[in-house]
Amino acid sequence: MFQGILIAGFGGQGVLSTGQLLAYAGMLEDKHVAWIPSYGPEMRGGTANCGVTISDIPISSPVVTEPTVLIAMNRPSLEKFEPKIVQDGIALINSSLVDTEVQRDDIKSVYINANELAEEIGNSKIANNIILGALVEMTGVVSGESVVESLKKVLPPKRHNLIDINREALEKGKKLAEEARVKTAM
Amino acid sequence: MKKVFTRPESFNDIPMHYCPGCTHGIIHRLVAETIDELNMVDRAIGVAPVGCSVFIYNYIDCDMYQASHGRAPAVATGVKRVVPDGVVFTYQGDGDMAAIGTAEIVHAAARGENITVIFVNNAVYAMTGGQMAPTTLMGQKTTTTPHGRESDANGYPVKMAEMLSTLDGSSYISRVSVHDPKNINKAKKSIKKAFEVQMENKGFTMVEVLSICPTNWGLSPKESVKWLDENMIPYYPLGEYKVPAEV
Amino acid sequence: MRKKLSKVLMKGNEAIGEGAVRAGCRYFFGYPITPQSELPHYLAKRLPEENGVYLQSESETSAINMVYGAAGAGSRVMTSSSGPGISLMQEGISYIAGAELPCVIVNMMRGGPGLGNIAPAQSDYLQAVKGGGHGDYFVVCIAPASVQEIIDFMYDAFDIADKYFTPVMVLADGILGQMMEPVEFKENQEMELPEKPWAANGKRGRESKNIINSLYIVPEDLEEHNFKLKDKYSIIEEKEQRWEEYYTEDAELVLTAFGTSARVCKAVVDKARQEGLAVGLIRPIMVWPFPQKAFDKVIHSAKQFLTVEMNTGQMVEDVKLAVAGRRPVYFTGRPGGMLPIANDIFEEVKKLMSGGAE
Predict the structure, then answer these.
(1) Other Cβ atoms closer than 10 A to B240
(2) Smallest Cβ distance to A29: which of C1, C180, C263?
(3) Does an interface of 3+ CB pairs under 8 Å exist between B and C?
(4) What is the CATH number of domain A2-185?
């Protein structure tokens, strides 16, 4: 098992912490994990991205140059990284903020209007975890339980009241991925 | 018979390397007397960077650091942070402190480092051969200002005591001179006060000491003393520039 | 699901800070620079908890001189920076080496020369392993390749510094500083730090004064001092070479790489072995002293060497010295903040092994 996951979006969308959550879940499952951010001036308000590698064998470079999965939280991220996705890889697109479509037909793409769905559930900040729920379902890279377990570690205690709503977000994403699979099968 | 004058205990009995007429020996002695009088030879730690006085570690009988050019206040900061009950002093010349080491001295003062700086100002780079110093006076001839210092080419002398006394972190700042016995006595009092302020943890202290350099000034010691009195003191007025309220 | 309670996910820069604190370091002096800033951020919070001192200096020049003072006073002390700041520190490092003081200096390397950029690179290898400043000296250089190694090596760095009275540099690249990996901490034991009777921290009843000094004005004296340092460096070269061997026993082509480059090269070796190619890797853990012994060990089977670096070819000079003309030594690298790609290196390997080298 090897997944090189690239999570990209605007600064402030929480892409770095979403990546950390995923890496933490991998660690709880005793897998080899590495997380690396893009760093420097572009961190301040521009684009932000991080790579998360989860693997059964030791990780060589932590830099995700050829992602097996791309989470694109905005349009520039999709345009920049779509060409880098490996063949048969996955693109998870936040269609609330991306109004274009994937050009390639050799990758699986799933569109999730995460911002609207997050508002429906009741907190705009959980959009990332809806998409993360879909990723977990589609790749099986870690279990959903590990992600919830990681929330307890990653969130400071005073934010633990948000665990339930995040769990709901993850489950929503899982369900959307299941539906997408059914659609593909049909 | 009553002994009225003797070598301070913390002053090592070895020949000094200074040129005839140099006042470093007097200033060293004042520091050593102070160390004796404040009974702190066991806690005193000195830092001397590159310059004529780099060998001070041979003369004063306390723990000592030789530092790179200009960096003594940074070294002293490192020492003092590890040894907060140490009485830490630097002994720096004008080229060292007012040129290459400007950043270090300004920020040690700004941080209010509890150290004492003895700043020897003789208006010339002495060890390297009499070049213009940041404190060289207007019109003063040096090996690198053969026709005298001119503002067009070389700007103006730096007044360190005035400058550092503007910083909130500085606590005791004075300028003294060692060109005659009366002033030597005053210098001694000021140096002692600076150390006392440090020992009360009141912040950064500095004593600027106007000093002669007969060798590089090209004057006899007697002429040098006169030159200091007539030229340096008008530009670098003596006195206490900053005194903590309670002292 | 097996949970290890002691395992935490940690950024390399923070791991350096925590590793240093656990190794007994209580003093840090530094100046901000990317990509190592998380380290001062971490220590600014962490050191006061241990009654230590974190101090932000006015420049890297000052930082290293504060280290000189704190090391001379007998403490375990550290500073950190990246390329441009390390260049500014070289004067002070030379004084520290000359005065034989123990300290740890972290260089989280980025692209150069000049302002270069802030992306990860191994551009300061030669500066690090050939002394770096003025005069006749070396700095022990340890090169971790994972966040776990960073933690483990911080103990070694401080111990070696104290043992040999020498500055020790932790030489890493921006990736190792920025990445997060799981780490496990050894049980935190009370450390017994070595006595430092030479420290200049006030005589306190001592018979004679202690002097921290690198000045030997009489040439005969300095020559004696230089030879004494040389003897010390020879002992370090004999005793402290460290490296990792990866499939080298029968390797016909031996890769050499350190830090992040070595991680990439391991993937290359794995791939090569899957295709039946006898490729191995020597990963210097100490880059000074350079692991000469590793090369003597593999020379019987090795037909050629390929050095991989994140620069235009620096460590390859030491590989050539170690191989000493016995076999050809080739180089491939990516400078400027770019990363060597496993597939590209593998292509190079295949070309060399099929006799395709020029």
Answers:
(1) 16
(2) C1
(3) yes
(4) 3.40.920.10
Domain identity same for C179 and C279: no
For residue A100, give how far its alpha carbon lies from the nearest alpha carbon of chain C (Å).
30
Interaxial angle between packed helices B72-82 and C60-72, expressed in degrees from 0 to 180 and rounded to the nearest 10:
50
- Whole-angstrom Cα distance, residue A21 to residue A152? 10
Residue C90 sits at the chain B interface (C-beta within 8 Å): no
The percent of residues in chain A predicted with pLDDT above 90, rounded, is 81
Same domain for C188 and C60: yes
- Residue C306 exposure: Cα atoms within 13 Å on the Cβ side: 27
Sign of CA dihedral B36, B39, B42, B48: negative
Establish if C1 belongs to a structural domain. Answer: no
Distance from CA of C97 to the nearest CA of A (A): 33
B46-93 pLDDT, tens digit per residue, is 999 998 999 999 999 999 999 999 999 999 999 999 999 999 999 999
DSSP state of B125: B
Burial of A26 (0-12, 13-18, 19+ CB in 10 A): buried
Q: Which two tokens stand for residue B104?
A: 């270090």
Tell me the three state secondary structure of residue C344: helix
What angle (nearest 5°) sits at the alpha carbon of residue C330, between those of residues C329 and C333? 140
Please state whether at least 3 CB pairs lie below 8 Å between chains B and A: no
Give the best residue of C180, C269, C343 to mutate against chain A (max A CB count within 10 A): C180
Q: Supply the CATH number for residue B139's domain.
A: 3.40.50.970
User: And the tokens for C201?
Assistant: 């921290």
pLDDT given for residue C187 in this prediction? 76
- Helices (H), strands (E): how many in chain A? 6, 6
CA C341 → CA B105, B148, C116, C345, distances in Å?
Answer: 48, 63, 21, 6
Chain A residues with beta carbon closer than 8 angstroms to that of C339 = 61, 63, 65
| Tally of domains in chain B | 1
For residue C76, the domain's CATH number is 3.40.50.970
Q: Is the pLDDT of residue A184 over 90?
A: no
Probe site for chain B from C47, C50, C66, C95 (most B CB atoms < 10 A) = C66
Mutate to test the interface with C, among A55, A57, A61, A147 (most CBs of C within 10 A): A61
Determine the distance in angstroms separating the CA of C199 from the nearest CA of chain B, rounded to an integer. 9
